[in-house]
Amino acid sequence: MAAPADRYAVMGNPVAHSKSPRIHALFAENTQQKLRYDAIEVAIGLFEERVAAFFNDGNHGLSITVPFKEAAWYLADKKTARAKTAGAVNTLWRDENNCLNGDNTDGIGLVRDLTENHDIPVKNTRILVLGAGGAVRGVLAPLINEQPALITVANRTFSKAEELVEIFSQEKKSSNQVRLNACSFDMIQGDFDLIINGTAASLQGQTLPVSPDIINPETVCYDMMYGSGETVFNKWARESGALKCIDGLGMLVEQAAEQFFIWRGVRPETASVLAALRGC
Ligand code: ATR
Description:
By secondary structure, this protein is of the alpha/beta class. It has helices at 20-31, 47-56, 69-75, 81-86, 106-117, 134-145, 158-171, 232-239, 249-264, 271-277; strands at residues 6-12, 35-41, 61-64, 78-79, 91-94, 100-103, 126-130, 150-155, 179-184, 194-197, 220-223, 244-246.
């Protein structure tokens, strides 16, 4: 009898709509890796128990999505440097010593989508990040590592932007010359090469109370969210005259590719998977 396939899953709540099973199945098919990847909806309060049971059954790795990324951070015995500063873990696996490892691949997913898929440089650029919640915290370290000239974090609640800038100013290497600023939406000033939306406003169908004057004809806009059509933020950015508007589907595929690499040691090709998800 053939050995059962190595088993992986995404845990979240809700999780039925997750694209991760399809993405990882395509990666497995394209790299001839034998594995099974499911979506597991976990009731709030049962996360720790379900993770332990999953790994105790001899299974291999988990993707963690909303609302459990912070709980996964606390659960991981060992965290990568980028996971430590992210304050959230989206990738879990057990090593040969039975130790539960945690990583956060969201930021590297964003950077790869920008720099490799879209040829958008980050080094020496001026970046505006909108939002200061968990999603933004998860991507700041990999963005800072690319050594942009400036990152301004703007948020509806100013104190949260300030707090993030404080954390990451202390964490960044002294050789990294990036300037980090915090402001509220109505205090945004300056010219930006790249504007990244990491707020949850698009999910609620809301436009941000931000002046369209922050966009110039050279500005690239990136919404970390994605949907079946153009996101609310990207519609606003396009109508405000942005050079290019990109949604977060590429980031989703790239962060999954990094997980696949962590678990399997094989780096899957992503372009065909992204095209399949877009229905091209
Ligand atoms: P996530 O994990 O998606 O980042 P979060 O940690 O709750 O979720 O953070 C949500 C982010 O979206 C925050 O920056 C939030 O702003 P506040 O810190 O002021 O709450 C932002 N956000 C959510 N809805 C918004 C809206 N309608 N307008 C502007 N910002 C919004």
